[in-house]
Design goal:
Blueprint (H helix, E strand, L loop, with lengths): L9 H23 L3 H13 L1 H12 L3 H11 L17 H4 L5 H14 L4 E10 L1 H13 L4 E6 L6 H15 L3 E7 L10 H7 L3 E5 L19 E4 L3 E5 L9 E2 L3 E2 L1 E2 L1 E6 L2 H15 L7 H4 L10 E8 L7 H12 L3 E5 L3 E2 L2 H12 L3 E7 L5 H9 L2 H6 L2 E5 L3 E2 L3 E4 L3 E5 L3 E2 H6 L2 E7 L1 H16 L2 E2 L2 H5 L3 H11 L6
Parallel strand pairs: 2-3, 3-4, 9-16, 12-14, 13-19, 14-15
Antiparallel strand pairs: 1-10, 1-11, 2-5, 5-6, 6-10, 7-8, 11-20, 12-17, 15-21, 17-18, 18-20
Length: 485
Amino acid sequence: MDLEALVWPDGVVIAFSVLIVQVLTTIHILSTKDEVRSAIAWGAIVWLAPIFGLLFYMLFGISRIRRRAVAARERRGLKPRKGAMQDPDGPRLADIDPSIAQRWRSHDRLSGRVAAMPLTTGNSITPYDGGRAAYDAMVAAINAAERTVALTTYIFQADQAGRKIIAALVRAKDRGVDVKVLVDAVGNMYGLRPVSNLLRRHNIDVATFNPARLSWRLAFFNLRTHRKLLIVDGQTAFAGGMNIRKHHLEDEANGHRVRDMHFGLQGPIVNQMSEAFADDWVFSNQPELDHDVWTPEINTEPGMIAARSIPDGPDEPLQKTAMIMESALASARNRVQILTPYFLPEQALLSALKQAALRGVQVDILLPEKSNLPLFSLTALSGIRQLIEAGCRVLLSPPPFDHSKLMIVDEAWTLFGSSNWDARSLKLNFEFNVECYDKAFGKKMASFVAPRFSGAEPVTLEALKKRPRHHRIAGRLMWLLSPYL
């Protein structure tokens, strides 16, 4: 027998190898993807464009981040975030307010199970309009720190705004305060000088979240921490959607560069924020934080607001924030107000918005007229026709670009934090939001944003029809890539 005749040509060997990898990848897709559309889309890419599709799936399709998070939690002796959802320990909303409507009791139960966080009572929350007010309050809190300062953010630039925060952190460190800073590896590179290097020169403990490395683990660069938390002495905290950069400072000549809002918090909710920071710190390969030091007993004056933190990310078994948003929309009876800079919700949220409007709820969605990312404006406008047809009001706020993230339902329930209304925030990023059950706070926030709604221009079906054809076509094409925008 001629053995040489049994040797396959190199091309056949390569093709057979690619086929085997395609089959194995398809098995992985079917085993790990929870959504039919996602599984079909990834399967099509892998089979229709074999080499490109396999590489693309290796980079963007595999959530290795979940395995790292599970391992980090196991090192701390914590249970994995999976299995049957149960009611967390702690008070129920009905215990706090026996007169609360049944729909909010049901929503509270869902939210507690989904977020795996108990409701906290006795919180006080202060909204800050714009960067200058928020940064001044944050610097003042750091200046008053006696034991610990924990800061995590997506973008931290050593510019006009960042230098004041850095100086306050250095002063705290020099006083003997234990300072920990966690900045996202991508956000750390926004400035010409990475702020992590600058802080290390001052002997401040700094970690970068999920750095991208030139190796087979390159896929990690697609999963970012978008959380913005500052916690001082485990007693006073700040959260919201503001990064640390001069863009959020008001320009004396032209007013706001970027509009935004941030929040100061006191009360038991701060303990939940400290726990979220501790999780992220360990996840970033840092030593475990002493719970008694970093999460001490809260001794602030009690407030009136019942609140729950919603830490969310791709390591979680559910899209927590999106599910809680959908439940709040189902609970709405009168009015829903939404502010978001980026609006590309997936079908479940779109359906919840339309159902609320069709029930007679006034649904107002405020988007920037001009985005800092022009592609987002094109893509967002391409998908809002169905909302307007269902009765939702979509309004465009004039410049400056509004980066605020807020949701108010019936002036009784409020959600704020770092999440945008897009797939990147609700599926890929690590986010942190706070939900509040308090009518006084809901009315306060509704009044807080009322000028923004009254000064915005509603989008009409006629206006959508008059958009240039090339804008409409480009918007629909970009919509196909919306999970990665």
